[in-house]
Design brief:
alpha/beta; about 475 residues; 19-stranded mixed beta sheet
Amino acid sequence: MNDRAKNVYAALLAALMMLGGLTACGDSASDDISEKPAKTDRIAEELSSAVDESTESESKDSDSKTDDKESSSKKDSNSKKADDKNDSSSSVDSDNAASDSSSESSDHDSSQTDAPHTEADNNHTTAATQPANDHKTTTTTAAPAVTDDVDDSDPEDAEKPTKYIYLQDTTAQYSGDGIAVQGSQIVIGKGGTYEISGTLTDGQILVVTDKKKVKLHLNGVSITNTTGSAICCQNAKKLTINSLPGTVNYLEDGGVHDADKGTIFSEDTVQIKGEGELNIKANYAHGIQSDDDIIINSGTLNIASTKSCLHSNDGIEINGGNNYCLGGTNGIKTDGYINITGGSSVFIGGVREEKGAIYCDGPLSVTGGNFWAVGNTCTMPDAALTTANVIGVMFANAQPAGTLVNVSSDGNVIFTMSSPNRFKYVVYTGPELLLNAEYNVNYGGSTDGIGDHYVYFGGSYTDGTDGGSFIADNPISVYTIS
């Protein structure tokens, strides 16, 4: 309702109220009452006229809006028809483009002339034509992404070795670049993956690259060197030695070689992994010596060493594998850190009073795995860094070589082990250890269990000396037998 109609309604309402007032006055207002129908009729006529005008005006407005909508709808309908023609034309044109390009141009022009040529509709037609072009693009088969099976920048990720070395007593044959044979010394001068097989009776694998990663796959290798290390890495970003599944590999050094004091020597990080077996004998010094880190991830690793089995300037990480380290001085030693997160390991120290199963000059953390350690000394883990439970038994007096130590809890054997050398410390960690559990210690005696690297499994332990018991009220507990 417009403003005029509102005003008329207000006037009518006032008039009616006045008439009502007159009626309430009785006879004195009788003359006016006789005139009321005429007044009312006039007011009604004015009101009707105003309402009609208002309705007509609103109807015109509504009709105008309806016309606009219908016009817009017609335009949209026409535009849609034109778009449909354009889409159909584009599809046909795309199919026939190779055979009749002039027909494509003619059809496209014809489809545009069917639509109204307003600026808005031209813009709409342009926008509607674009998806047809996009459709042709998206239906085109894209070339597959190019992937490399071997990443030359990181050959450690390679699935298949790319270069081969065949050891033949005092020489070798090879395929692939980056390899040179100089008598009984085989030189690797480029980064990459190398599969090595055969026997080298008196020689060496020498790695000298421009700081590239080198991965050696050992496939039934036997290398002995009477005058130095079996594998010497003088320059590489990282040296990975992988014992291939089902293979047994053997490395042995000899002579005096102070410049590379290890059967495996590297100036850079050494990583040991695989599903095969690697046996190392160190006659001069260490089994594996690294001026950087030593990382043990998997495989079977057996080391018998004149000095330390694993010796690192920076750190040692044991994340997996079955590892046996029989050291002439220390089982494992580092000037830096040791992290043990997994695997099953035996560390045995040598006979000298100050040498031990584990020697760590920095932090030692144990967060998983099993290990048995026995020696004259043994570095205990840092409580703040260790999440596994660890127990140690320390004897005030050294025990003779071959003496058994048996630890049990609630009638269940936790471990039984001995050492080929005299010892004072026995340390163990494993998932069956419980905080606040009571442990009983016996030593000496005998066992009919199956021995594996001086650790005995199954069978019965008898006739030992009672060493007493203790409660492991801390994650790292050491019990002393005087």
